[in-house]
Amino acid sequence: MTATTFFRDGLIAGENVGEPLQSGFPAVDPGYNADVSLGTLAIYLKLASDAPPELHEAFRAAAEMHLKFFFPDGSLDGSWGSRSFKWSVFGSKTAHGSQMWTWLLGEHDGRFTRAALQNARLMQSMLSGHLLGTGGHHRRSGAPACIHSTWNRADCLANSLHYGPAETQPEEPLPLETPGFRTFLPSVNIFLARTEKLAVSVSAYGYSSGSAMLKPAQPMGGAVSYLWHDGWGPVQVGSQAVYRRYELHNMPEAPGDSPAPSTPCIILTRGEKQFSNVFDTAARLEESADGVKARGTLRSIERTSADAAFSIDYRLEASAVKKTYRVSGLRASETPEVIEPIVIPENPTYETLPDGRGVVIKSETARIALTVENGSAALPDVSPAYMPFPGFYTVQPRIKMNSGDGKAAVKVRLEVD
């Protein structure tokens, strides 16, 4: 085997097994690759005097690529990978951690110093009795913490300090801390961008494990898988479409009868069956001048087509995202909905705008306004829903699309100030 067997386009292929993507690209998981593969390889390259030059080159390219997945607060975007069902915001729950490569590379590049320290600061803020949990609001949920993830992260930090440099370069901004940064990864259908106040990840990563048990595992279908604001923190976070405990010892039971998924999505109900963009493994992203556009087909959880096409047009502003949802091929009287889950702090206040024009959510320090055109928004339940991974409480505004002549559309604006 050679380095090119596993390293492609700066990504590390082969994490998990299953069907290749529509592009022919094998499965990848940025969470596990950043938290395990790159760190162990970094230490190997430090110790091995006979490592081939092409392995050093492949490692450096992968390090540059995975640096793009660190959000400004140090969170690692594992929202869309083949193991995203264990995404815990600080990384992947059962993996070791990213400092084993970021801290080592910080000897010569302050961006990696920044990634290592910001991620460590985030973990520190999420500790509950010196233990880590499964995500952002885990401590608030009251669920038991986990010794597995805690010891793994401690192991990572110990290795980083043991093998790392005596001094690192001063911190420099991460790519997603730089307004105007954007990147599109066509081999995995992922779009990342930074505006003045927002950082966003949009996923059409169409991985399918080939196993009925592992469907569906990750946000896809052109959904926002992670939206972050520098005054609110995480605003929208992708999750499994249905919570399934693929690893019983590592995935806790969900509180309540049916935890609500936190991925923004289109829902079409037809009899007893639901169809959505997030079940479409063949959706595609296309870059535009001010954002990105997704196209695909509404499908059921079993991947059955509704014979209805969808598109989502994202336009990015300094502190807002505009989303235009369209569906065609509808049957008579069908009216799709859009669900826009929003991460909420403790004790928020809510305001419903007149005539279904939107919802306003306020914390002590910031405000989110969700407004709609050509549709009507409602917040049927302000009781927060909790999803164990990535471990956030959300509320779930539901938006009815205007429909007629077999088509439906709605414009949604999500602004944070």
Helices and strands: which structural class? alpha+beta
The 3D shape can be described as globular
User: Would you identify the regions where 5 or more consecutive residues have pLDDT less than 50?
Assistant: none
Question: H/E series, N to C?
Answer: HEEHHHHHHEEEEEEEEEEEEEEEEEEEEE
Overall average residue pLDDT: 92
- Which radius of gyration do the C-alpha atoms yield? 21 Å
- Tally of strands: 23
- How many strands, what sense, and barrel or not for the largest sheet? 13 strands, antiparallel
Could you give the distance between the termini?
Answer: 51 Å
Total number of helices = 7
Characteristic terms for this protein:
alpha+beta; 20% helix
Describe the structure.
- By secondary structure, the chain is an alpha+beta fold.
- It has helices spanning about 5, 30-45, 55-65, 100-105, 110-125, 140, 145-165; strands at about 5-10, 10, 180-185, 190-195, 200-205, 225-230, 235, 265-270, 275, 285-290, 290-300, 305-315, 320-330, 335-340, 340-345, 350, 360, 365-375, 375-380, 385, 390-395, 400-405, 405-415.
- Helix content is about 20%, strand content about 30%.
- The strands form four sheets. Strands 8, 9, 10, 11, 12, 13, 14, 16, 17, 18, 19, 22 and 23 form a 13-stranded antiparallel beta sheet that branches. Strands 3-4-5-6-7 form a five-stranded antiparallel beta sheet, with no helix packed on it. The protein has a three-stranded antiparallel beta sheet with strand order 15-21-20, with no helix packed on it.
- The longest helix is centred in the first third of the chain and has 18 residues, at about 30-45.
- The chain is globular.
- The mean pLDDT is about 90.
